[in-house]
Design a protein that fits this description.
The protein has about 160 residues and is an all-alpha fold. It has 2 domains: about 70 residues; about 40 residues. Helices cover about 90% and strands about 0% of the residues. The protein contains 5 helices and no strands. The longest helix is centred in the middle third of the chain and has 73 residues. The protein is rod-shaped.
Amino acid sequence: MSNDPKAETGSPSPEELREAVEETRGELGRTVDQLASKADVKRRAKDRAAELGAQAQEAAADAKNQAQQAAADMAQRARDTVRASEPAREKAAAVASSITDSGAAAAAKVWARTPEPVTDATEAAAGAVRRNPGPAIAAALVAAAIAFVLVRRGLR
């Protein structure tokens, strides 16, 4: 066997004891840190609050992006609808112009076929109304009142 009396008794050397003590101190330090972090409720609450705040910010950013996308989609649909209605709008304008032209043409035909004394009297009356519209307005109001009374009597 060996000449070392410590080897025969199985007791560790002072160097081995120092290493074991250092290792145990390190493990104890880690264990204390773990226990301290579990016991530090205030820090854990702050960490959880920060985590929840980050989640809320992420959710808000997602909601904002979804809202922006929805607004962009709606704007595009509106533009598409306006583009689709352009032909209808153009056709309506053409029909309105045609009706106006037809009405003007019909009025011109009626005016051309109206006897001259009637057109002269009409032009004179129109000129008088333009110069002094008061009596014409009063006459129109009286005619409207009479028409109203006649219509009301007819409804009973």
